[in-house]
């Protein structure tokens, strides 16, 4: 079982997320356990203060270290997390490989910041991984935390109905996924590529690989720098660069 402990000022945001779809199924099956910890509960003053003005001036308020330290220390008395993740726009870009790595853990903590962030002593003392969903800023780390949880939980054994589908998804092998179709074979004048109706598994696999290469080359060429490409893949990409699209229509 993989346990998630989310430190947040807004645990109510996670209630519908925890009780819906695959995330709920994963909890019901015992694959994962999800807990929200409101670190405001660990503030000791009469007003339960969790923020203050930053030293040196500047706009906005900063999360104080004391409540977060106390919340993490209380958690550590019960178990030792394998990793403590901080959701921050300053972090490392989140990748599928990171989701796969986290899915092998037993206990993860996710820190959700707010306001202008948190006192850096929290990061210095506790954080093992700083994670960013992209080069943009949100009002808090809760949505980013949900994205990480979702991407990790679906990788746990038996959570998805068809584990084989994981191997074909975008980013799983460094490429974007090929296009997919279902019935009807013709819809509003648009036909499914004939190769998918041929029953020839070798040709279907070849077409899907070519489509993955094309989509990645067209939309995310940066991914090709790190993808595991065969010599045949490189030949196909060279054809694309020359404007040769033969075989793509199936």
TrEMBL record:
It is found in: Cytoplasm. Residues 2-224 form the tRNA methyltransferase TRMD/TRM10-type domain. S-adenosyl-L-methionine binds at residues 113, 133-138. Its EC number is 2.1.1.228. Keywords: Cytoplasm, Methyltransferase, S-adenosyl-L-methionine, Transferase, tRNA processing. One of its GO terms (biological process) is tRNA N1-guanine methylation. It catalyses: guanosine(37) in tRNA + S-adenosyl-L-methionine = N(1)-methylguanosine(37) in tRNA + S-adenosyl-L-homocysteine + H(+). One of its GO terms (cellular component) is cytosol. GO terms for molecular function: tRNA (guanine(37)-N1)-methyltransferase activity. Homodimer. Belongs to the RNA methyltransferase TrmD family. Specifically methylates guanosine-37 in various tRNAs. This is tRNA (guanine-N(1)-)-methyltransferase. The gene is trmD.
């Amino acid at each position: 079982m993989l346990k998630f402990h989310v430190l947040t000022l807004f645990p109510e945001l996670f209630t519908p997320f925890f009780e819906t779809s695959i995330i709920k199924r994963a909890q019901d099956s015992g694959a994962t356990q999800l807990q929200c910890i409101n670190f405001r509960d660990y503030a000791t003053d009469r007003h339960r203060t969790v923020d203050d003005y930053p030293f040196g001036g500047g706009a906005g308020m900063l999360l104080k270290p004391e409540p977060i330290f106390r919340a993490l220390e209380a958690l550590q008395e019960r178990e030792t997390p394998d990793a403590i993740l901080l959701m921050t726009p300053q972090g490392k870009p989140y990748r599928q490989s990171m989701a796969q790595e986290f899915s092998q853990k037993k206990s993860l903590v996710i820190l959700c910041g707010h306001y202008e962030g948190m006192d850096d002593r929290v990061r210095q003392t506790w954080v093992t991984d700083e994670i960013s969903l992209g080069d943009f800023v949100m009002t808090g780390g809760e949505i980013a935390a949900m994205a990480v949880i979702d991407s990790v939980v679906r990788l746990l054994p038996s959570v998805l109905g068809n584990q084989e589908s994981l191997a074909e998804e975008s980013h799983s092998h460094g490429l974007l996924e090929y296009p997919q179709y279902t019935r009807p074979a013709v819809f509003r004048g648009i036909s499914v590529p004939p190769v998918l109706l041929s029953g020839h598994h070798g040709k279907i696999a070849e077409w899907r690989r070519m489509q993955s290469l094309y989509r990645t080359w067209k939309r995310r060429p940066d991914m090709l720098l790190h993808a595991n490409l065969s010599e045949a893949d490189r030949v196909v990409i060279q054809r694309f660069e020359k404007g040769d699209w033969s075989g793509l229509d199936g």
